[in-house]
Design brief:
Blueprint: H1 2-18, H2 45-55, H3 60-70, H4 72-80, H5 95-105
Helix pairs in contact: 3-4
């Protein structure tokens, strides 16, 4: 399994190089060029689990018990939503020094 994953990861950069996005004169990505074909076709894991449980409703209780037991935090977040997270920083930013470095390197 790891070998397959590693092979796919090695192939990914080549695939990206061939899929360059097209930008307008302002540098903005032109609609439809970043991912022209959308998400690859096929079922997601969520869709496969839903279909399985529809076909085997007797397994629902066991599935839920296993999911909650093994993924208690994720199960809670899915029921209640993720808690609010702070994204601020407590340090300082010295733009002057950054600009001096940029000018020095030009």
């Amino acid at each position: 399994m790891d070998k397959v994953k590693n092979e796919n990861m090695r192939k990914a950069p080549d695939k990206q190089v061939n899929n360059k996005v097209i930008r307008n004169e302002k540098g903005q990505i032109i609609k439809g060029t970043a991912n022209p074909h959308g998400r690859p076709r096929g079922k997601t894991i969520k869709e496969m689990v839903r279909k399985y449980l529809e076909e085997h409703p007797e397994d629902m209780k066991g599935f839920v018990e296993h999911f909650v037991r093994k993924n208690r935090e994720l199960a809670w977040q899915m029921m209640e939503g993720r808690p609010k997270e702070s994204v601020g920083h407590s340090g300082e930013i010295n733009i002057g020094r950054l600009l001096d470095e940029i000018e020095k390197n030009e």
